[in-house]
Structures are given as structure tokens and as C-alpha cells.
Design goal:
By secondary structure, this protein is an all-alpha fold. It has helices spanning about 15-30, 40-50, 55-75, 85-95, 100-110.
Length: about 110
């Protein structure tokens, strides 16, 4: 088995910046426009602070993106932004779009034991 410690990944800077911007934008919005669940806010803070992410967390991020990406793309085509598109803000809280390909890479590495 050995004493090989697995290093947990930290989100890329683009995702950290997106999550920070989303948290700041959300604070400025009226309560009725504040997208994001408690889980989404916790994830945004984890990403923005550069905390380590486990394999299960990475898989949850991937799953969230898969569920909401079609609505995000539709909202973008309609010209929505973080200020007026709930799904845009919610996805930004999770570091999207900068986190998407990085999450896939990290999941692959961790599952291979790299």
C-alpha cells in the first residue's frame, strides 16, 4: 500500500475568479433575484477560497454542470447575465465555465490514482 498521499486538487484561477464575482454580484441583488442554494453558496466559497476538493466533490460539480448547462446556454443565447439570469448566476457560483474541463481532467487523474 505505501504512504503515498493523494493531493487533492484546487480549482483553477479562472473558476476562483468567477465564483468570487458571482458571490459579489449575488450580494448586490435584491433577495428575489439571488439565485443559488445553500449547497451552491458553500461550493462557491470553497472554490473562491481555493480549498482542496475531493473526488466526490468534483463528481458533484460535474453532475451539477451536466444538469444545468443546457439552461445556461439557452439563457446566454437570450442575452442573460448574472444580474438577470438565475441560471447564469447559479452556474457562476460553481465556477462555470472555467471549471468544466478542469473537473473532467481531475476526476480522470484521481480515478487513475495519479
Amino acid at each position: 500500500m505505501g504512504n503515498k498521499r493523494r493531493i487533492m486538487p484546487v480549482a483553477p484561477s479562472s473558476a476562483k475568479q468567477t465564483a468570487r464575482k458571482a458571490l459579489e454580484t449575488r450580494k448586490k441583488l435584491p433577495m428575489s433575484k439571488r439565485a443559488g442554494t445553500g449547497v451552491g453558496l458553500a461550493r462557491a466559497n470553497q472554490i473562491a477560497k481555493g480549498e482542496n476538493m475531493s473526488l466526490s466533490t468534483l463528481k458533484r460539480i460535474k453532475s451539477f454542470i451536466a444538469r444545468h448547462e443546457p439552461n445556461y446556454k439557452r439563457a446566454r443565447r437570450q442575452g442573460k447575465t448574472m444580474e438577470d439570469g438565475g441560471v447564469i448566476l447559479a452556474m457562476a457560483l460553481w465556477g462555470y465555465p472555467g471549471i468544466k474541463s478542469w473537473v473532467d481532467q481531475q476526476i480522470s487523474k484521481l480515478e487513475k490514482g495519479e
